[in-house]
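User: Batch of two.

Assistant: Item 1 of 2:
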Amino acid sequence: MAVDEILVLANSRKWGGRCVAGVSIRDGRWVRPVSDNPHGALQPRHHRIDGRDVEPLDVVSFEHDGRVDDPSQPENVKVGSSRWWLTGRVATGEAPKVLSPHLVDGPVLLGNRGAAMPEDDAMKGVDASLALIRPAQVDFCLEPPSKGTSKPRPRARFELDGQQYNLALTDLQLRPRLLAAGLGVHGLDDLGLDPNADVPLTISLAEARDGWCTKLVAAVLVLPERG
């Protein structure tokens, strides 16, 4: 069993469980622990420490069995059975400096300029299925349910180096605020947050469904205003 220590940059909804991802403290590479559960979803014994969920900017350690052979998600590692442990946390005021080396520029995001990638293309192998970005502005939208469903759809809309994106939002901390705000487009102030906040986003390329790998906003990091 190997042990890795990561700076958590996402803890989001995934198929009845959670998806946690972050960058390794040791080498700066992205890491996404996955389990034997369907779709690799993590359960509470994986993502809860001292009675709470791990959160973005936590630093956690865990055991794993090495990289999983998944060309569409090269960051995946097979999580071990032991519980995780918290080793630290990055203060929000220090976060911009810590996160800066991991930011990627646009307009291309995870391989193309769309909201998804064809499964066939993803299975040929991608360079990355996780990215940290800092859009100049981001709005959040609660769209009506799709035909045949009953739940509204949380989305994030942003521009990255001139390219417009509208992606599904799976972030656990912002979703409740957006659901409470109701249908429509909402800025940070509408959600009870500082409208001038620095808002990096963690983007994840999800596993394939119906022939497509969808891009998701897996985390919204609300940091102090940039100087």
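Item 2 of 2:
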Amino acid sequence: MKILVPIKRVPDPATTIRVLPDGSGIAVDNVKWVINPFDEIAIEEALRIKEKQGAGEVVLAAIGQSAWQEQLRTGLAMGADRAILVITDAPLDSLALARVLKKLVADEQPELVLMGKQAIDDDSNQVGQMLAEMLGWPQATFASKVEIADGKCTIVREVDGGLETIAFALPGVITSDLRLNEPRYASLPGIMKARKKELKEIPAAGLGVDLTPRLKLKELKAPPKRQAGRKLGSVQELVQVLHTEAKVI
């Protein structure tokens, strides 16, 4: 089985994000970049599927600048077999990303596309669903358990009311939720092997895909700073403040 795992480069969750003065984006100076945590979970699940089946190939794909090689190498060090980097300097919206991935799927012919449910920087949660629609493949989003046997995939997914179990025949698209697994760390031998694994670069302009953005970012704003807390002298005073100031009771 061949599994394609798209990944995205995002700021480390522990990094302090600063918005540019003109609101056009974030300041990238001194920002540590990592694999999107949900995509890292997808890599881990793809590796587990391959290990359980005893054979197969896990192919990583990223769409961005040359600097994204670092995150792809991290995924290769975890155990992925090879990687593809579609080079573009322009930021792409969800629709353009889905179109690029559709072209990669046509070229690679994977049985499964396994990706994070959303990226932690924009939280769009759109690319997996768009890709499945473009391919005409069944999909399962927010997966917390995945089992594959005899060409059929059974997924437990998290919904508002609890858990839902669905099944479909491959090929298909799955997006991973937080509780699907705990990603492994890249071992030293894995890091050494990753240096020799194939990392292919493809110019986005040469794919013949419409990359025209349909979404326009107008402005970014930092959230307001939290006000300092204050101590109250009694329960009666707390109730009064909650009633007159906070207006929650």
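The CA atoms of residues 86 and 206 lie 10 Å apart.
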